[in-house]
Amino acid sequence: MNELSLIETISCLIGLTLIAPIVSCIIRQLPRKMLAEYESECLEFLKLENTNKQKVKLLSIKDSKFKTDKKLNILFFIPVLSYVFAKTKLEPSEADKPELLLVIETLTISVGIITLMELGLTPYAICQLIFYFSLILVAFIDAETKLIPDIISLTVLWLGLILSVLGFIPINPSISVLGAASGYFLPWLISKIVCYRAQKPDGMGYGDFKMLAMLGAWLGPLSLLNITILASIIFLLYFSIMKMAGKVNKNSLIPFAPFLSFATWAICQNQLFHFSEHLRIIMLQP
Predict the structure, then answer these.
(1) 4 — alpha (psi -120 to 50), left (phi > 0) or beta?
(2) Is the CB of residue 82 less than 8 Å from the CB of residue 97?
(3) Exposed, middle or buried, 124 (CB in 10 Å: 0-12/13-18/19+)?
């Protein structure tokens, strides 16, 4: 635990308050922008006229939060306050899922505070914040759209490799490269073998493989093994509960990125979930 000075604390809170709406904005706008671009490319390929030429603005916080042409003051864009003002000052049709945005922004600020309290205001803490925020982005986008944008997973993957070379994160560059390679290749190979034997389409999407490669680049292959084990346990518990409730069946498509993101954060925070160390202890016992 690192103690921050008063000025550092105030600066961090202001910074997180500014970053949280941007995170929620990207979560809402990036899938819309991707789908609009896919639609445009398909129409262009089929040589059809594109009647919807309105471009989606990626960093338009207003478009991500509200469906109104009213002029809104700055209080509508401050985390938590935006939820209160949306519920009290706007019609339900004018606010775009304010509860979800409240969860995203509160989670972003909470993760930021915990990370900065643990690591202090250091270059390593900033790197970890970027990594954790990317997990939040991927988790919520995949949960809502079943998409994992390459622009997030691949960008953060390469950033992890570069930061390991520069020494900003505590992982050897060779381990980082090995983690990225194993994170993509091994799940891809297992998926192909299982699906070939069962004569079924891929159970995991290629976005999941790229996300695992991203996690491997930042944390290495051993941590990746721990993440996969913990995420699978949480997924099986979730699936069992939802199946008993009649909400899912064996053919349901359940996004896996939220489980991977939570497992990654849990493993980074607590050594209790370092299964590789526990297994090593058990194997060494007579």
Answers:
(1) beta
(2) no
(3) middle
198 in Cβ contact with 231 (< 8 Å): no
- The closest of 141, 150, 162, 254 to 206, measured between CA atoms, is 150
Give residue 101's Cα distance to chain centre: 15
pLDDT tens by residue, 198-255: 556 555 567 889 999 999 999 999 899 999 999 999 999 998 898 888 887 777 788 8
Distance CA 220, CA 192 (A): 23
User: Mean of the pLDDT values across residues 139-159?
Assistant: 93
* Beta bridge partner(s), residue 95: 66
pLDDT tens readout for residues 6-30:
888 888 889 999 999 999 999 989 9
What is the pTM assigned to this prediction? Answer: 0.89
| pLDDT for 195 beyond 70 | no
Q: Identify the residue whose tokens are 């060779």.
A: 174
* 47 vs 199, more confident: 47
Q: Scanning the structure block, which residue is given the tokens 């034997």?
A: 197
Cα 26 to chain centroid distance, Å, stands at 11
Residues 6+ apart with CB under 8 A from 256: 142, 204, 208, 231, 235
| In the block, residue with structure tokens 């939820």 | 83
Q: How far apart are CA 34 and CA 26, in angstroms?
A: 11
Distances (CA, A) of 106 to 6, 65, 79, 82, 215: 22, 15, 7, 12, 24
- Model confidence at 275, pLDDT cuts 50, 70, 90, reads confident
What percent helix, strand, coil does the chain show, rounded to 5? 75, 0, 25
